[in-house]
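Weekly puzzle thread! Below is a chain. First person to post its structure in token form gets bragging rights.
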Amino acid sequence: MIDYLIGTLESKTTNNITIDVNGIGYAVSISINTFSKLPEIGEQVKLYIIEAVSGMYGGVIYLYGFLSREDRNMYVLVKEEVPGTGAKKAMEYIDKISKSFIDFKTAILKKDTVMLQSIFGFTKKTSEKLISALKDKIQDICVVGEQKWSNVDASENSIILEAIDGLVALGYKESQARCVVNKLYVPEKGISVEELIRKSLQNL
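Winning reply:
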């Protein structure tokens, strides 16, 4: 079993990298958050690894890499505890969760489906599934960093969600809407849903 790899970063894309370890190239799947923190090509990198077996009779081994043990532990928790979540689906979840692991943990413990939808981009159904699966398990997972949305209450999350829904109703993709709304929303300014939608339209 591989615990971690240390080697030269040979190539990188938003979801895959190649690490040269003593002349052997390892292809490793990564999240977008991990990609954004990688060094330049040719520099040394260390990734903590999860191995996943796929194919009939365990024919193919895929490697998934994380920059810290904490990130890897969150991935393992999601993969093992959330029903119907395989290795690739868990990585899709981690892409969203990695916006702020500590805020995600808080949202799960508070059973805050609105925050999971508005900040992290999960559907209501998936948010409920995550809470049900993780609420009694996530407390044991260590996460680091400061909360980004700790002062955003339920009503403010609702404004974000309503603005996103409004933009989707106007024909924009949910991913586009969520990106621009989260970028423009400033809690302390007390912006209304209508004004947030108007400002968002100016940036789409």
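Puzzle host: Confirmed. Bonus trivia for everyone else. The chain has nine helices and five strands.
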